[in-house]
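As agreed, record passed on underneath.
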Amino acid sequence: MGTFNTLAEAFRYPAPGLAEVLEANQADIAERQIQNSYTGFLRHISALSIEEWEELYTRTLDLSPAVAPYIGFQMWGEGYQRGSFMALMNHALRMEAIETEGELPDHLIPVLRYLDRAAQPPAELLEALKPAVKRMRAVLHKADPDNPYNHLLQAVLQGIDRLPPVKERQAELIPPMTQESTFK
């Protein structure tokens, strides 16, 4: 399991045994900075009962639309652009055989799993991901600075920072125009 897949698991709804699984998955994060943020998240949730963790999850990720874990929603609200983005992500997820497990295709869980698997994520995803997660993190940090999900969102941001820049990826995705490739 890679770094992004490990982070995706931490965004799951709390269940008995999940904290232990998340702790065991910690070894899958090679980057020290990301691991430190992830450890901060684990340290906080391990001190909670399952009921307290469920309540924290619901309060943080389900009831607060400002911190809703949907990339498209964070970028464009319920507008047309979000619909286009979700169609793009739905196609991308299907191409990598990633199940959304009942979530919309712009939810952080399938998006993070996709990043672990895809060789060349679409530029649209890479352009939207960091600003969306930064917004979530800023809103949550302002509203609830002690919330453990701040650590998890920080770990995601640190992982995003390790992705190749969008311009480099676009160069890989779009071959240069040659005279042979122009229409006659």
